[in-house]
Amino acid sequence: MTKFVGALDQGTTSTRFMIFDHDGRPVAAHQLEHRQIYPRAGWVEHDAAEIRDRVGEVIRGALAVASLTPEDLAAIGITNQRETTVAWDRTTGEPIGNAIVWQDTRTDRLVADLARDDGPDRFRSRTGLPLATYFAGPKIRWMLDNVPGVRAALDDGRLLVGTIDTWCIWNLTGGPKGGVHVTDVTNASRTMLMDLATLAWDDELLAAIGVPRAILPQIRSSSEVYGSCVGDLAGVPIASDLGDQHAALFGQACFDPGDAKNTYGTGCFMLLNTGERIVHSWHGLLTTVGYRLGAAAPVYALEGSVAIAGALIQWLRDNLGLISSASEVEPLARSVEDSGGIAFVPAFSGLYAPYWRSDARGVIAGLTRYVNRGHIARAALEATAWQSREVFDAMVADSGVALTELKVDGGMVVNELLMQFQADVLDVPVVRPRVAETTAFGAACAAGLAVGFWSGTAELRAIWAADRTWRPAMDATSRDRDYARWRKAVARTLDWVDE
C-alpha cells in the first residue's frame, strides 16, 4: 500500500511540492521562487514557462528529500493562485506571452465598459462576483485583443487558455502529447464566466465578455481523478484541483456551515463555509464555490479578498530597503509600543473587499517627525489585521452568523505580534493549526479522498489539531478608536486615479 499523498502548491511568488503521510504530517517539501514581472504601472506578469519548469524542479526536489519514488504516492493534488491566466499553443506547448497575474489592473477599461450600462453588479446574480480587474474572464479577452499571436492561434485552432491549475495539469499529463485540459469548480468560479448554480460555462457571459467556449477547459469537481502524470511522477493520478484559498478552507477542516478561515499570504483571504446555500453579498464580499467532492452537491462560501498582505512586507524589503528579510519585520515592529499614530493602507493596485475600488492607491496617513522605521513596520503589520477586520464585519453582516473564532494559516501566521493584534481587533480567538501548510494539505486531502487514501471528511477532521490560540486583550475603547482612524485613512486612498 502506498503511504503518501503529494500536493503541488503553485503560488503567486513561489512553487512548492509537499508530501504528506496518512496522519497528515508533512514528510518532505521543496520550494522555489519565480520572477515577478512589472512591465508598467499596474501590470503584473509571470513567465508561465518558468513556472512549468519550477514545477518539475520542486517535484524532483521533494522526492529526493524523502528518498521516495512515484510508486510511493497514492495521488497528488493541485492548488494554485487562482485568477492568474495563461494562453498557450496546444501544438508546441509553449505559452503565448506572459501570464497575467490576479493583481494586474490592465483590464480596467474593459471592466468599466462592461459595467457602463448596468453597473459593477451586472453579472453578480449569476457569478457571485462584481465586475473587477481581479477576475480571469476579462484577462482572457484582453489577451485575445492585445497579445501578439493569441488571435492567430485562435483562428488556427491552436489556442488553449486557463488559470494556473489548468496549465499545470495539462503539462503534468503530457502537454502537447495528450495533456488533459481541465479546471475545477473553484477556479472556474473565479473567471466570471461560470454560472454558480449550474457549475457550467454560461453562453451569455461568454458572449458579453467575448471569450470563445472552445478555448476553455472542461469544468470538473475538486476531488476526482483527472488523469495520470507523465515524466517525474509517471503513473501517479492527479486527483484534486482547488484554488489556493479553497484548498486552505478544506485543509482547515472547515466542513460545516459557519466555519471560517483566513489565509495570510501575498494577499489575505477570508472564507466562510455557507454549505449548499448560495449566499449573495450586499457588503462587498464574493460568493464562490468552496469545493465539490466528486458527484456530491457543491459547498459554497463567502469570501473577502485583500490584495496586499505579505506583499507589503516584501515591498518594505525590496522597494524601501527597510528590512533585509521578512523575518526582521516583527522585531522591528516590536521596537515601538504602537504605530505612532499612523495608518498604512496598501492600496497598491486598488482596494478589493469590501470596497472594490480600482481608483484607490496606497497611503501612509498621520505622519509626524516622531514616526520612525519601527512605526512604519508596525503599521504595515496592522494593515493586514485592519483589512481583515473589514472583511470579517462584512462576513457577519452578510451571513447573519456571529463568528466565534477564526482559523488562520499562511506564511504570516508565524508573526505572533500580528496574530495577537488580529485577535485584538476582531475580539475573537485566532487559532493556528498544527499543520501550517493548509493550502498544500487541503489539496492533498481532496486528492486522498478521491482515491480512498482517507475514508471521508470525518477522518480528516480528526487529523486537524490546533497549535496555538491567541485571545483578544485590547479594550473596546482603544479598538474602536484605532478602527475609526483606519477607516479615515482608507477614505484618503479613494479617487486617486482619474478616469
Task: Provide a concise account of the structure shown.
The protein is α+β, with helices and mostly antiparallel strands and 499 residues long.
What helical percentage do the residues reach? 25-40%
Across the major sheet, the strand order is 17-18-16-15-21-22-23
% residues in beta strands: 15-25%
Helix- and strand-based class? alpha+beta
Detailed description of the structure:
The longest helix has 27 residues, at 373-399. With 499 residues, this protein is α+β, with helices and mostly antiparallel strands. The radius of gyration is 22 Å and the shape is globular. It has 16 helices and 23 strands. It has helices at residues 48-66, 108-115, 124-127, 136-146, 150-155, 164-172, 185-188, 203-209, 244-251, 310-318, 329-334, 373-399, 416-426, 438-450, 457-463, 476-493, and strands spanning 4-10, 14-21, 26-33, 45-46, 73-80, 85-89, 99-100, 159-163, 182-184, 194-195, 200-201, 218-220, 223-228, 237-243, 260-264, 268-275, 286-291, 299-306, 343-345, 363-365, 406-409, 430-433, 466-470. Helix 9 crosses helix 14 and helix 10 (310-318) packs antiparallel against helix 12. The relative contact order is 0.13. Strands 17-18-16-15-21-22-23 form a seven-stranded mixed beta sheet. It has a six-stranded mixed beta sheet with strand order 3-2-1-5-14-13, sandwiched between helices. The chain has a two-stranded antiparallel sheet with strand order 4-7.
